[in-house]
Design a protein that fits this description.
196 residues; alpha/beta; 6-stranded parallel beta sheet; 15% strand
Amino acid sequence: MTEHVETAMRRNDALRDFARVVVVGTSCSGKSTLARRLSRVLDAPHIELDTINWTPGWQTRPLDESRQLVRNAAYADRWVMDGNYGFVRDIVWARATAVIWLNYPLRVVLWRAWSRTTRRVLMREELFSGNRESFRRSFLSRESIILWAVSSHRRVRREYRRIIDDGTYPHLRIVELRGPAQADALLTSLCNPAVY
């Protein structure tokens, strides 16, 4: 069962519940950005699954190696992790104490995909393992993250709804955020948990 941020903010035990947090959601919903902000608020290491998965030249790491690296990272007492990799969900969610699901509307995701990708291409930002998004890859190819964000949005939302509702991970505190304002409110509540 999910709870919305209004309920989550009213609990004084919030910091304990967020010892090991995984942030999930559709591509370009802002998982890594929220996870970085959470890691600062919670004073916990930030682990980005994209960094573990991708090697130079946009190649993926071998599955066994990725799972071992994730297992090692998840063993720690405290962390904030972000990513949607189903092949490590059994490891990450079993160790997590909370899942924050960015269940944002397509219009928010599309705007974030467009603005983030445009900035990365223009600024030649380095992403994971020295990889960069190119104009061609981002806007003119089937590998476009914008195209992926749009085409996978509905499927990913349905998948998370099913996973969360089926009760496979009853130990988890699940917080469903439906917009950026709720994410900001959650961060505020974690900075001042006694206020609520």
